[in-house]
Specification:
heterodimer, A: 208 residues, mainly alpha, 77% helix, elongated, B: alpha+beta, 3-stranded antiparallel sheet, 11 helices, 9 strands, 35% helix
Chain lengths: 208, 307
Amino acid sequence: MPIVPSSPEKILREPSAAATRLFIWSGHAGTPVQRREHRLDELKWMISRQIPHLRRYALALTRNGDRADDLVQDCLERALLKRHLWHRRGSLRSWLFRMLFRTYVDDRRRRRDETPATPEVLDGAVSMPAGQESRLEFRSIVDALARLPEEQRVVVLLVGLEGLAYDEVAEIVGVPIGTVRSRLSRGRHALRELRASGVGRRRLERVK
Amino acid sequence: MTTDGVHEIDLMAYADGLLEGDPARRALVERHLRANPDDAAYVEEIAAQNAELREYYASVLARPVPARITAALERDRRPLRRTARATGVAALLLLAAAGGWLIGSSGREAGGWTMAEFIRRAATYEAAASTDAVSLPGQEAAATPQPLGWLNQKIALELEAPDLEEEGFMLVAKERIGDASDAMVRLLYRSGGGETVSLFLRPRWEGGDRRVERAEAGGITVLYWLDGPLAFALTTNAPTTDAETLAGRIHASVERARLKRQAPTEALASEPGDPSALADPEDAVPPQSATRPITPAVVQPAPGQTP
């Protein structure tokens, strides 16, 4: 059995419509070198379109703006180094999120002993556009989310915040779809409990 | 859950807007929700959670992207060192045999070893070792750079273990083989399919490289090559063509990052253990090799070795 296809994750990834599209779109005339540069430029263009989403997800995961941007930076560097792998894999978006997720997991492993983000850090990380009212109101979901187990939080954010489909989430996190479903379900029920029990209200009193 | 074939995943998918492309399923769920107020409340709860999340982070999408992130897109092929750490690639310390390593002699490598012996040791080790017996607890072991403890040595080569993740192999173990005066390092990689690759490294100070070649020893095929200050030997139970791909990749990744070539006369002119014999770490790393520097670092002069 050859080495490369023996990696299970590589077997699972079929060429997608997105990959095919990029290939056709890149069909410039010119020398091979020029064509390669065009393809790279187009790939960078497509990656650029995902950067705001990657940053948002990273911020929601870390609740720290600097750490989030560190993760995105690492993720993009990894992505470019390994870009030749993507052509065989699904959508660029889930590939990038997968890379971001792995970067996050590695980063967390290194930081395991560090203290979690404080409210001050959070305030610094997320500046609210709306008035004080909505700030207080919306603190609740984020505070409640912070109390979920990591594995549930990761999945709830991918679906609820980034709007990814369950199969994409399964690919990003590297678990079966059934696991995504159950984590999502447990996460949503826990959030419901937390919100109903007034996590946000206690926060509101403290802020006041 | 129900007799109409609507399950929780349908409710979640409906609330998450994932049934937009499936009107029939959507209609089924909507009919179910009209008949089941509890489920309807659950769907509303999910939709409300999602809406709050998106509202809370709405401003983030519109923020200008910092320059360091856009710059990361232009820095392809030159990732920061931080990236290597983030990927959990192990750093290895290869320490040279005291004294003799610095002063190379042609024909026979310094420290009294030969390429043929190196190949033979790699092959016999591979034949004898049970690869399962030496595995460390995976990434945990690989993530922490640990000197291998050759304390009575003088010179360290810091080298990150070649990353074979793209080839489907993860580093699962590293170990030192042999005594301090004649030691080599073995890195064990394993693929998801259970194939293993053993990579043997040992320091050298002969100048020059040798491309990947093949040898047979004791029925084991060994691919071997020389990269500046390192000698490599690779054995694997994966098919031959892939082994050559792997060897080529390792060769290329080390080549990009190796030491600046030091003229033999310089090495000979310097006393063993004299820090001036070693280039400054900054100088030693060629400017284009920010990725995986092999940084010489003085450890300490071994007692009794200074002439």
